[in-house]
Structure formats: structure tokens, C-alpha cells
Inverse folding.
């Protein structure tokens, strides 16, 4: 049958790295993340000697036929440079958007935590580009494995977490019985991270009387309540919303009058709200 081994995100939630192993020894890694925050020191304190580095890949890569990543957060992909350093040279499967983002995210991560030497960074990024296999959502992809090995397939499904995020469904070459129904394969799902948190732009100074927060909140609602078929669909929806928020909503609040006319009418009906009489200042502000 098959085995699932856990190399990270065991005692905490970061450093995700799992290994899906078939009976013939072929295996696929799922995520290769960095330990973050308090878990860095936790991993360090469990180290056997001061030389042990929790970033290093401590398990054998023999039989590993590929890496599957579900999204580009650093706690799921940050140890990929260390994986390459350990000799990994197999395909990296990801959704199309994640395949675009991965080199950018890793470039930043390497610059922040390892080196800014472009002579070292460029070949690593080039290697990652060569290994990446972009897979469209909701399409079965056969994973390359050793000749004669049983066929293993995967499919990415949208996870609504970040751009390009997915949960991944594997079809393993083992017949299974589920609720009395026989299936010719066995399904295993790795969820990755699901759902979205409030990670939108923080309000800047000067204070905006809650306008930024309201705008972020509305965008967050749009993202929570809609499913997007593609990157273009997401972009168009956001642009439509920005237009609606900046133009249509204020216009209807002003009864479709020009702002200066609406101000003058408020001045007439609510003079106590004004210190000065509103007037049209023609020309550019100086
Ligand atoms: Zn995440």
C-alpha cells in the first residue's frame, strides 16, 4: 500500500513537508516549507548538536520523484533552495499562478535570509524554473515516476487562500472500497492552507475616518463570497469593484449631482456643519 511520512509541521504549523510513498519506494514530497516564528527556536532546541540546522533536509531523497506545492507561502516553499542543495532535481508541480509566483517569492526569501549575491541567486532561480511543471486547476496530471512504476495522478482544486492556492487530490494506483462502493483507485487529499485571512492593506496616515478599513472590508467580502475562474476574472472583478466604490457609490450618495452642488445644498439645509460657505475654487490647487 502507501505511506505518508511527516518531516515538518509535526509539532507546530510551519515547516510543512510531507512524503507520500508508494509500495515500490517511489515517493513525492508535498510542500517544503520553512519553520517560522517561535517554531524556528523550537526546531533548533530539539537539534542534537549545535551544528544541527533545522533548515537542512534531514531525510534521504532516494526514490523521491517530484515535489508538489499547494501555494507560495514561505512556510510551504521556503526550504526549496535547501532541497536543491541536497541534490533534488525532479519536477516541481504547482498551479499556473503559483508557478509564476514561486521564483519571485524565493528570490525575496533568499535575499532576506541567505545572500544578496546575484551570482548565487540567479542559477538557483533558473534551476527552479527548469523544474517547475505548471498544472491548470481541475485537470488530472500524471506524475512522472520511475519506468514500470504504477501511475500516480494529481489534480489541483482552488483553495481560496492566496493567489494560485490549491488543495491537491492524488489518485493512487490502489483499488479501494468506500462505503461499500469499489473504486479502482485510492484518493488522498492534502489540504494546504484553506480560506483567507484579513491580510489586506493597512490604513495609512493621515487617518481616513475608516474609509480604508471599509474599502478593505468590502474587498474582503467580495473575495470571500465569489469564486473566480481565472486570474483575469479576479482582476476584472476587483477593478469593477474599485470603479463602483470610487465612482458609482459616491455618485448615488450625492444623488448624481456634482460634489460642489451637493455641498451647497447641504450648506443651505445644515449650516451648522460648515465653518465656511462652500464655493467653487476654479483651476488647480496651488
Ligand atoms: Zn498559507
Amino acid at each position: 500500500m502507501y505511506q505518508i511520512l511527516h518531516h515538518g509541521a509535526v509539532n507546530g504549523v510551519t515547516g510543512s513537508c510531507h512524503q507520500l510513498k508508494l509500495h515500490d519506494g517511489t515517493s513525492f514530497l508535498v510542500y517544503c516549507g520553512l519553520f517560522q516564528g517561535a517554531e524556528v527556536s523550537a526546531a533548533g532546541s530539539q537539534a542534537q548538536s549545535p551544528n544541527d540546522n533545522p533548515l537542512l533536509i534531514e531525510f534521504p531523497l532516494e526514490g523521491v520523484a517530484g515535489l508538489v506545492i499547494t501555494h507560495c507561502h514561505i512556510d510551504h516553499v521556503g526550504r526549496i533552495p535547501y532541497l536543491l542543495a541536497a541534490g533534488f532535481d525532479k519536477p516541481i508541480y504547482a498551479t499556473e499562478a503559483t508557478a509564476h509566483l514561486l521564483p519571485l517569492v524565493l528570490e525575496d526569501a533568499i535575499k532576506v535570509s541567505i545572500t544578496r549575491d546575484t551570482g548565487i541567486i540567479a542559477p538557483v532561480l533558473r534551476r527552479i524554473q527548469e523544474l517547475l511543471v505548471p498544472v491548470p486547476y481541475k485537470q488530472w496530471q500524471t506524475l512522472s515516476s520511475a519506468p514500470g512504476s504504477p501511475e500516480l495522478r494529481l489534480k489541483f482544486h482552488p483553495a481560496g487562500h492566496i493567489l494560485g492556492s490549491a488543495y491537491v487530490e492524488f489518485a493512487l494506483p490502489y483499488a479501494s472500497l468506500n462505503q461499500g462502493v469499489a473504486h479502482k483507485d485510492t484518493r488522498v487529499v492534502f489540504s494546504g492552507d484553506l480560506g483567507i485571512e484579513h491580510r489586506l492593506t493597512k490604513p495609512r496616515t493621515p487617518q481616513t475616518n475608516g474609509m480604508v478599513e471599509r474599502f478593505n472590508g468590502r474587498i474582503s467580502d467580495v473575495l470571500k463570497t465569489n469564486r473566480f475562474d481565472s486570474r483575469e476574472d479576479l482582476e476584472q472583478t476587483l477593478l469593477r469593484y474599485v470603479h463602483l466604490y470610487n465612482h458609482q457609490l459616491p455618485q448615488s450618495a450625492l444623488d448624481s449631482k456634482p460634489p460642489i452642488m451637493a455641498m451647497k445644498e447641504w450648506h443651505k439645509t445644515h449650516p451648522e456643519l460648515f465653518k465656511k460657505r462652500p464655493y467653487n475654487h476654479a483651476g488647480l490647487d496651488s
About this structure: The first strand starts at residue 3 and ends at 8. Confidence is low (pLDDT under 50) at residues 41-51. Residues 211-273 form one domain. The pocket of zinc ion is lined by residues 71, 73, 161, 193 (CB under 6 Å).
